Amino acid sequence: MSIINPSLDDSFSPSSPKSSPSRSKLEIVPRRVTFEFSDFDGPFYYNSNSCISAMWVAMSASFPAGEGEFIKSVKLFENQISDPKLKAEVRDFAHQEAHHSLQHRLVNKELDKLGYETGKLNDFFKDKLKEREQKWSPEKRLARTVCAEHVTAVMAHHALTHPEHMANFPESFRNLFLWHAIEEIEHKSVAFDVYQQCVGDRKFLHKQYKIFTRFEFPFNMWLSSRFLLKQLGHKATWKERKELWSSLYGDGGLISDMRGLYKQFLTEDFHPWDHDDSALVDQWKKTLSPYFVNHSATK
Asked: Are 90 and 80 in contact (CB under 8 A)?
């Protein structure tokens, strides 16, 4: 099992980055939440479809290591940030991502009780990310985080506008992803704004985005899902695979429905808050507030 890591030309041109203060439109709130992950009725919880179930488990398994790298890559530039608002947002971004890691570690333990081996998968991702720390420049690590943050923000928008697609999730798992989606949108421009202020090379960023979205992310999710099912000793049926394809690329699917937002990233003057999700976040904060340990965080 190996993560694809295309070795295209990684040179970048700083081209005198200009000061680019935060353009966030929402307060980034480091909430604490509580979910009872005891409502799974089996490993194939999503309408008895092993492919879709394993894909979301793979997503959850990747978060602890992935969120850690997001924090590290942004903090590499912390001393270069001149905007006080952006410095504060980097701090709150790190708090949010750290709590995402914690909550996904908790649910991953429950998923392991069902036969999944999320721990092995997370260890694998941690090892690969450690290799990147040694081989990649800080600029490349930050650029790849910016790309991942845009993809997760787009997926978050889809989750909050199409909650019916998670109707087959156990309630705790569904609410975990919806809460995660709220916060991904709240901090969706932090890594981008740091990159713009400290690096500023759009051409390099676009190259990394194409690698991430066309190769690394889809390949890793496919490989991770396959690994999890293999550990369970389960072979997916063609019907299950067809349903997975439809959930991604069919009418209203996770990829097909959001294609325009994915592509927006490649426009020269793009900023994450060109697409304003403020009202959507406000709506879901009220819905999920019973799960917030500090209910004042709904403000």
From this structure: no
